Amino acid sequence: xxxxxxxxxxxxxxxxxxxxxxxxxxxxxxxxxxxxxxxxxxxxxxxxxxxxxxxxxxxxxxxxxxxxxxxxxxxxxxxxxxxxxxxxxxxxxxxxxxxxxxxxxxxxxxxxxxxxxxxxxxxxxxxxxxxxxxxxxxxxxxxxxxxxxxxxxxxxxxxx
Length: 160
Prior knowledge:
The protein has helices spanning 3-12, 23-43, 48-69, 79-91, 93-115, 123-147; strands at 16-18, 72-74. By secondary structure, the chain is mainly alpha-helical. The chain has one domain: Up-down Bundle (Four Helix Bundle (Hemerythrin (Met), subunit A)), CATH 1.20.120. Helix 2 (23-43) runs antiparallel to helix 3 (48-69), helix 3 packs across helix 4 and helix 3 runs parallel beside helix 6. It is globular, with a radius of gyration of 15 Å.
């Protein structure tokens, strides 16, 4: 199923709704995602779960930014799952299939340790999540730049 078909299915299912594109809102999400990654790195030696959680938050913010760029927003219900699904379709599943799969696996893992604190996050998992999130955030910032050539606040080479 392609991006347009997926968006139509999610709209009809009430999982997303249309909204006017607001680049200030998008830029705020991307700025916050960048700060989340900084917090993730700083906390890696202190608390793997904090690192994992903040890397996931950086990715979900970027996923929302992608949706907002296309004029959609998730509605109540399974927002995170919806964001991951539609963001993957918008980016082009073939090109981003591995990173989108990792993103969805992170969603599941984060949900598990949020509700069952006896399920730990290893340092290796936290490091891998951070690497994935850094790659994803960089790609989304590049995508944002290609959507609007006046996007000069971000120097992609100095993002991370």
